[in-house]
Specification:
The protein is mainly beta. Helix content is about 5%, strand content about 40%. The strands form six sheets. Strands 11, 13, 14, 16, 21, 22, 23 and 25 form an eight-stranded antiparallel beta sheet that branches. The chain is elongated and about 100 Å long.
Length: about 400
């Protein structure tokens, strides 16, 4: 009954405030009452549940002045009215202390609310939340926040990652330069500059020179070497072919490009061959094949210096990758099986000759970090070697091209 008395008294006060007020609840036993002013369109809702001696003072809503709330037990909500609440604390720990539908609310400086009001900020800054409700702004976002950590750019600049979770700028290169990679990061270089690059390609397309376009040191026994005579290979894909026919039980063949001294280090070294294996080695007609970068010039001897592939079916049906330095060798069996047909075999030594990666048909098959030849004045170059271990049946091999690329970290 006490709530009814309080409500009745409150309604009487509110009714004198509004020119055309209507009480929309008719039961004094309820704890929530609504007053609607049809002239101003304002509606107030008062909850008096649990209140016994609070003072309720409401001003005319259309005036925009303050309304004073009781100290506890009351929620006041307004619709369609610009109003403010002053000198009251919203207790975050208590339940039900909620303001709703306060349009265009403005939290003034000094308001007793356990959150800070962000200043007007700076134009073009990004708003940052630290996860606990504290807001700040930043002009330049770091990489960890999804930005670039860069604030200025010059025409032609490019962004790249120089290390994990770190972005850098690369200025535009000079006219005629091209973008390449050195040490795993992009850099500008100039093509056809022999002071910084060296390239070599043999495509066996020089019939006036016997097929080979460069000087090769060939040593063979029981082997016929021809350059496409009577060959039926697709010339649209393989314009030059060196055909090796091993037709005796003691057949052997070794070819190495000139007597030139190449040493890994001081820049990347890359070697690539495209060869065709017609028939795989087996127990009846067995052979060993090596190809890549090496020093050997004899029929069956292994390299004293080199980085190369080996196919020896008595050891494994898979490709072997090898390195040799002063006749001390490292051999790794890959997980890639040797198959008949054309294959692109690549060997890449890093700038400092501390690591060599091997590729079959463009796919990495392994890395070697030991016995990499770095001794100067040792003669090594592109080479191909194959020799019979048993069987007199002919075995054919085709050499499509050989390629060597050397980039000098310190140009000549």
């Amino acid at each position: 009954m006490r709530r009814g008395v309080i409500a009745a008294a409150l309604i009487a006060v509110l009714a004198t405030t509004f020119a055309d007020a209507q009480y929309v609840r008719n039961s004094f036993l309820e704890s929530v009452f609504s007053i609607f002013d049809r002239t101003s369109g304002a509606k107030f809702q008062v909850d008096v549940q649990g209140a016994s001696s609070s003072t309720y003072t409401l001003s005319t809503p259309s005036s925009g002045t303050s309304s004073t709330l009781p100290t506890s037990g009351t929620i006041l909500s307004t619709d369609n009215v610009i109003a403010s609440v002053t000198n009251k604390t919203i207790d975050a720990e208590a339940t039900g202390n909620v303001f709703t539908n306060w349009k265009d609310a403005n939290i003034k400086v000094g308001a007793n609310i356990a959150r800070s009001k962000l200043a007007s900020g700076t134009a073009n800054h990004v708003l940052i939340n630290d996860g606990s409700g504290v807001m700040s702004s930043e002009a330049v976002l770091t990489e960890s926040r999804g930005g670039t950590d860069q604030s200025t750019y010059t025409t032609g600049d490019m962004i790249y990652s120089g290390s994990t979770n770190n972005l850098n700028k690369l200025s535009v290169g000079g006219d005629g330069s091209f973008l390449t990679a050195a040490g795993g990061i992009p850099t500008w270089e100039y093509p056809n500059r022999p002071s910084c690059y060296m390239t070599f390609t043999e495509d066996w397309t020089c019939p006036g020179l016997g097929g080979a376009c460069w000087t090769w040191n060939n040593t063979s026994a029981g082997t016929n070497l021809s350059f496409g005579t009577g060959d039926t290979e697709d010339r649209s894909k393989h314009p030059g072919i060196a055909l090796i026919d091993q037709n005796a039980a003691t057949s052997s063949f070794i070819t190495r490009m000139g007597s030139i001294q190449y040493t890994p280090g001081n820049g990347e070294l890359f070697v690539e061959w495209v060869i065709k294996i017609e028939t795989l080695s087996d127990a009846t007609t067995n052979y060993t094949m090596r190809v890549g970068f090496g020093s050997t010039t004899t029929a069956t001897a292994d390299n004293a210096y080199g980085l190369y592939f080996e196919y020896a079916s008595t050891t494994s049906a898979n490709w072997l990758i090898k390195s040799a330095d002063n006749s001390v060798r490292t051999t790794t069996t890959t997980s890639t099986a040797v198959t008949a047909g054309y294959h692109r075999l690549g060997v890449k030594a890093n700038d400092t000759a501390t690591s060599v990666e091997y590729f079959v048909d463009g796919v990495s098959v392994g890395t070697i970090t030991s016995n990499i030849p770095t001794t100067t004045q040792e003669t090594a170059g592109l080479f191909f070697q194959v020799f019979k271990n048993s069987g007199a049946t002919s075995r054919f091999f085709r050499l499509d091209y050989a390629y060597l690329f050397k980039r000098f970290t310190t140009c000549r």
